[in-house]
Amino acid sequence: MKRMSSRSLRRRLAATGTVGLTAVLALTACSQGAPATQESADSGAVSEATSEMPAELVGAKVAIVQQSGQGDYFQQYLNGTRQQAEALGFELSAYDAQGDNATQATQLEQAISSGVDAIIVRHGFPDTLCPGVNDAISKGIAVIAYDVNVSECADGVIQTQQSDEIMAQLVLDRMLEDIGEGAAVGYVNVEGIAPLDRRDAVWRQFVADNGWDQLFKTGSFTSSSASDSAPMVAAAMQANSSVTAIYAPYDEFTKGTLTGLDQVSGSDDVLVYGADISNADIELMRAEGSRWVATGATDPNAIGAAVLRTLALSMADELDAQLVEFPPVLVTQEMLREDDIKNMEDLRAAVSELNLSQVSTADWMSVVSF
Prior knowledge:
The chain has 370 residues and is of the alpha/beta class. It has helices at 6-14, 72-88, 101-113, 126-138, 164-179, 194-210, 225-239, 251-262, 279-286, 300-315, 333-338, 344-350; strands at residues 45-47, 61-66, 91-96, 118-122, 142-146, 158-162, 184-188, 213-218, 245-247, 271-275, 292-297, 323-326, 329-332, 367-369.
């Protein structure tokens, strides 16, 4: 099949588009939390419980220990966690290590010492977290992990995550459709972060299967990933001007990629493929001349709430799975423009699959849905 040139494709994307709503659903589905900001201030609807909560859960104290709370995704995630905790009458305390792994380990110890009943560990590294997780479990504290693989070194942990393999597959299928085989490509990612590693495995397979020529890999995972990655992308592109498309599978990396490309003359036709979604991401994708073609996404507000409900089920001995995954969808520039989707509220209305209110529920739960 004849492939459309990057210039022709960008002209097509700049138009209103004729593709229609192409949200692609998967069966099973990254990212981290912080104090709620305007970006993460979405208010969910609450459906009231129809029976009494188990007595041992009433007024439970829960801590969320985050490797980093910076970035749109993480702020939305914490917003969902907070609202679900409030709906259940749980007392929630939040810790943000601001990207420092040693600090996260220390904060996990602080959470344990504070006398909480349960802990959500979100992102980070098993080597620094497993001692604390095992200590918490030995003290009878329930532990649930999101996007950090501590279950292999700590028995009794409930593992939750997006289906990152499917998320990457959705986006890279679109990238292949756009650029074809044998293309020169760039990559913005880091190693050692569980969800990014899962996406990386899919990327490497796509590169091998389709003869893509990966000319660079760059990026920095910090408390300011977007701004720190931007100059790295700019330098990589200046040294590799033949790159036609870039995969940046975390929205802070995607934003940093867009900023970096803005600093490189002659890069207007470079296509960008990302991950995650937020109000800010939607605005960037819809912008005139935007390079951001497609992203694989879940609603982080909904995931934050669903993880807390999964924890509550586990505390009540009503959870029958050790791994709970959340399904992603494909969001494209065309669908945002054609369906006039301007923000997360619009996107939820257009893509019902983002609603996780049926995941990890019980009749004794008041459920927050977004």
